[in-house]
Write a structure and sequence with these properties.
homodimer; 7-stranded antiparallel beta sheet; Uridine Diphospho-n-acetylenolpyruvylglucosamine Reductase, domain 3; 15 helices; Vanillyl-alcohol Oxidase, Chain A, domain 3; 5-stranded antiparallel beta sheet
Chain lengths: 466, 466
């Protein structure tokens, strides 16, 4: 059966009209100049298509209307938060509906007895963090983009951050979800209670699913009591291996730091060049550790002694919170600073068992030499989660090619060391060819079948993950 | 198409022969007197069938053989750990293969730097706990049956325990699984690393799935550093409401006790009657709290002050670890003591938001009056997880009927208060009619479809959960 294809504009017009029957005019964007600005997240090397329309619903009912329409017209839907992701998971596909949840940004409840918050998906991480602080509570997940990124996006990618070594990732804080399914049905998962085992854990299935199983329109989040402010220590090492040895001694010694970060020489230099922070450029690796305990100075002293035993050339505990904040600022500037080195970066996210961190660093250095590239490494060292960051000139095709190839080799190294291709950034478009190598053919088949259960028409964020 | 049914014995004989082609003789039990002893777990009111055969494999390959055979012959398989469950989740069905994992009981690795243990499913919880202690590590999940129950069983039911208020449930400690699927294929989920978001979280899907999606044959578990020994405080209250008010003040005050348990008057009296422990029988509710911090006495003093502010009639902190242990022993005897009251108990497991704990206690008392029953309540108060325990004489049909009816009413109350029908015991056979009431028709449909993905023939622990 053949039919004449309607011209593109007419199709889009029809789609927009249908969407407008359940959404206010200002919530439906079709101007190509505007919709193009929603085409991609912050990942490099990830293709993005042109959305047919961008919708900005404000209610669950509006999201249901969007999904019913998409199902009826068989139009792909790409859900988006603040598009700060680093794997292309929020990139548009040609002719899709971009479903931006950013206008659903209300905090509906903060309950200090139950230690929960109930939020819409568009709430910005920092907004929630500050709001719960006012109740003496703490929402730990703190991705670098926390001032911009949304809770819905954090849930989609199971985001981490600097806090994870003590407090774990986003997944640990999601108790229950309201989800609009592909066909517009509404499903609630999980609970408001501290514990619960009624049926399969669909909540966790949605966390990290990158919008490929349904649209998260509400979340019940677990909170913790606000801990004391953390005190930071900096330790310099003459080699990456010595710094990693210190990490192993710290973890083996039973310490629970609230932060344990590593910056290599390349990163330290980049930060100094950008912000003139006076970090010690003669060091090969800088370790930042912190405690948010009742006596952080004593805990830092014990940790500092382990660093010295591992060969630290200098150990400098911060005197106070202000000095601590300055050290953390250096860490937080790392990616921006590395970007300034050659204009473009490709940020990897390989996580290895922390006992293999030294091997990961050494291997990354070998890869940088082989491909004649500058690769700076910042790592959530306490988690074994490295972000090898390839600095390159995107205008140089040969360097770009080498960057891409080194990236693959870094992931292969991570798997070889018993690690994962992604600790906290997700698979998205960037790593989908690598997913199968990590989880194997049986894993891929079962995952695909689960996708099929929730999205039989394949309209939810197609081309991501698999 | 009709055919003559083979006599039962011949069918069993054929099944046993097929199983014996991949299992040693001592791993295949067919004597009905023996197999009958594997028919059920520790739940009341749950029907159990007669297994055709019990298999006790020692290797992954043997489990795969069992599942291939079961798939080929379309025979249901009921996986079992130590059968200490309280929901009938391990109960046999007529003609099934009982697949006991108790012989796969090796601890394969304990790694203090990566803070993980790799185990087979039949390892007993207490065995693992003690083994990791020797490395300065801590595996928190501590169900009451911890001296008997297996890690595989804990994973199947997502078990909790006394530790959860600070350390969470089993689910929080499962990083990765090896699973034999219904057709005998082997799948690995998850990771050895601290973080990881490669694909859907199938690990968590299996945790709490009660053996209905696959057979867990290996697990990588997260460990924590061993905390200091905890110090316990007992606080007496003149009403359950006052004790629950204290719980709310403690949680709102930002405290993180390592244990926060409640025993009502009925339970206190039962424990005294059984063990002559000299607990204060004039009290209406006894709260036990503990800290495993560096200065537990100071933390207990602050918590004790909150109890007094909530109206505690007496607050008694233990002087030392030995005295603490004595108080905990009283708590651990609770269920045995309640069983002694009338010979039989029916233990519920309703979890409510902890702010509703007072309403749950009050409602349970109302239900006990209405049905003229003795219902003792022990609760993991800090989690809002109550175990209303109906004491009855199983030989009295009318009392048994009232017990059953009160049980339903308690679950209805839990749901009404925003809670869940099961905090840590699972659905099994006991609560499957209630699951739909909690998760709704869309939730049930999606869960059934997931079951269908992993178990298209419906041979994995049929009749459980749904």
């Amino acid at each position: 059966m053949s039919r004449i294809e309607a011209p593109r504009d007419e199709q889009t017009g029809n789609l927009a009209d249908r969407l407008l029957s359940g959404l206010p005019a200002e919530a439906v964007l079709t101007d190509p100049d505007v919709t193009a600005s929603y085409a991609n997240d912050m990942a490099s090397f990830c293709p993005a298509g042109a959305p047919a329309v961008v919708v900005l619903p404000r209610t669950v009912e509006q999201v249901r209307h969007v999904m019913r329409t998409a199902t009826e017209l068989r139009v792909p839907v790409v859900p988006q938060g603040a598009r700060t992701g680093l794997s292309g998971g929020a990139n548009a596909t040609d002719g899709c509906i971009v479903l931006s949840l950013t206008k659903m940004d209300r905090i509906l409840e903060i309950n200090p007895v139950d230690r929960i918050a109930v939020v819409e998906p568009g709430v910005i991480n920092a907004t929630l963090s500050r709001a719960v602080n006012e109740h003496g509570l703490y929402y730990p997940p703190d991705p670098s983009s926390w001032e911009m990124c949304t809770i819905g996006g954090n849930i989609g990618t199971a985001s981490g951050g600097l806090c994870c070594v003590k407090y774990g990732v986003t997944a640990e804080y999601v108790l229950g979800l309201d989800v609009v399914l592909a066909d517009g049905r509404l499903m609630s998962t999980g609970r408001r209670t501290a514990k619960g085992v009624a049926g399969y854990d669909l909540t966790r299935l949605f966390v990290g699913s990158e919008g490929s199983l349904g649209i998260v329109v509400g979340a019940t989040l677990a909170l913790r009591p606000q801990p004391p402010e953390q005190l930071v220590l900096a330790a310099e090492f003459a080699s990456g291996a010595a710094a990693c040895d210190a990490v192993c001694r710290i973890m083996e010694g039973g310490h629970v730091p609230s932060l344990l970060e590593l910056m290599d020489r390349t990163t330290v230099k980049a930060v100094n060049d950008l912000a003139h922070m006076g970090l010690p450029e003669t060091t090969e690796a800088l370790l930042l550790a912190a405690f948010d305990t009742t006596d952080p100075a004593a805990d830092l002293a014990a940790l500092g002694a382990l660093c010295e035993a591992a060969g630290a050339t200098q150990v400098v505990p911060a005197d106070d919170v202000a000095e601590s904040e300055l050290l953390l600022q250096a860490r937080r500037l790392s990616l921006t600073a590395l970007e300034a080195v050659k204009g473009t970066t490709m940020i990897d996210d390989v996580c290895v068992p922390r006992s293999r961190l030294g091997a990961m660093l050494e291997g990354t250095e070998r890869i940088a030499e082989k491909y004649q590239l500058t690769i700076g490494v910042v790592a959530h060292a306490g988690d074994g989660n490295t972000h090898p960051t390839v600095c390159f000139d995107a205008a140089d095709p040969d360097e770009s090619r080498r960057a891409r190839e080194s990236f693959d080799e870094i992931m292969a190294l991570g798997l070889e060391l018993g690690g994962t291709i992604t600790g906290e950034h997700g698979v998205g478009v960037l790593k989908k060819e690598w997913l199968a190598r990590e989880i194997g053919p049986v894993g891929v088949e079962m995952q695909r079948q689960i996708k099929q259960v929730f999205d039989p028409l394949g309209i939810l964020n197609p081309g991501k993950l698999f």
